[in-house]
Amino acid sequence: MVTLIAGLHSIRFVDVIDILLVSALFFYLYRLVRGTNVIRIFWAILVIVIARQVAYFLNMRLSGALLGEIVSVGLVALVIIFQPEIRKFLLLVGTKTTLAGDSFKKRFLFWKHNISQSSTLNVEPYIQACMHMSQSKTGALIIFKRQNELDDIIATGERIDATTSAALLEALFFKNSPLHDGAVIVRKNTILAARCILPVSSNNQIDPNLGLRHRSAIGISEQIDVISVVVSEETGAISYVVDGQIHHDVSPVELRQFLEKNIS
């Protein structure tokens, strides 16, 4: 007991910060692999590391040496196996700390922020288009650009660069339109591109009844700071996705409130 108390007294404030940082790192890593097949590999690696430590503790030289070599080679293999997850993790960190965000502009580039305030989101065309497409059961996928640049995604589609209107959105998603497949990328009141190809989520916890359009909406929001709005072709239900979380069958009023609150 005395040893335990003495050990607690020896803990420095820096040690507490160190523990919190490592805990946050593992939390973000777990978020990235949760619900995917990668979690099984993660647990397998953990078992191997623990087994190696046990082998060293019991002085099992052959087993310890073998497991030690596996761990050494595994460091290189990890980079290859977890390449998509590492990329997602770096994107997540970059999104949270980006210097291009609105919070940075408000604090340090206030003159530029004041200029950009003149271009606020007019949510009405999006709400009207979603309502009409919901009634006609026209499938739609709209991606609202926020902090991250989407040049790679935009390059997969057709550049539009037009002022947003409900009629234009409905025309783009009309089933006989050559641009109706894929996603429309928008920035506030501008339609940037149409027929864009998005990454599809590999999360196994997604409702199996959801189709490719919804999986793409989730996939892009898992990797990049965007808001996805989906209109189901089967049911006409409107959904929105943010940070990989989908909110099903929302009303036009709920969609309006969400967009006005989260897109400045």
Notes on the protein architecture:
This protein is α+β, with helices and mostly antiparallel strands and 264 residues long. The protein is built from twelve helices and seven strands. It folds into two domains: 2-96, no CATH class; 115-262, YojJ-like (1 (3-Layer(aba) Sandwich). The model is unreliable at 98-108 and 110-118 (pLDDT under 50).
Q: TL;DR of this structure?
A:
The protein is an alpha+beta fold and 264 residues long.
* Structural class determined from secondary elements: alpha+beta
In angstroms, what separates the terminal alpha carbons? Answer: 56 Å
| SS elements, strand count | 7
Q: What's the main sheet like?
A: 7 strands, mixed
Q: Return the CATH architecture of the largest domain.
A: 3-Layer(aba) Sandwich
H-E order: HHHHHHHHEHEHEEHEEEH
Rounded average pLDDT: 81
CATH level 4 superfamily of the largest domain = DNA integrity scanning protein, DisA, N-terminal domain
Q: What is the name of the CATH topology of the largest domain? A: YojJ-like (1
Assign an overall shape: elongated
Strand content: 5-15%
Poorly predicted regions are 98-108, 110-118
Q: Indicate how many domains the architecture comprises.
A: 2
The strands making up the biggest β-sheet line up spatially as 2-4-3-1-5-6-7
Number of helices: 12
CATH class of the largest domain: Alpha Beta
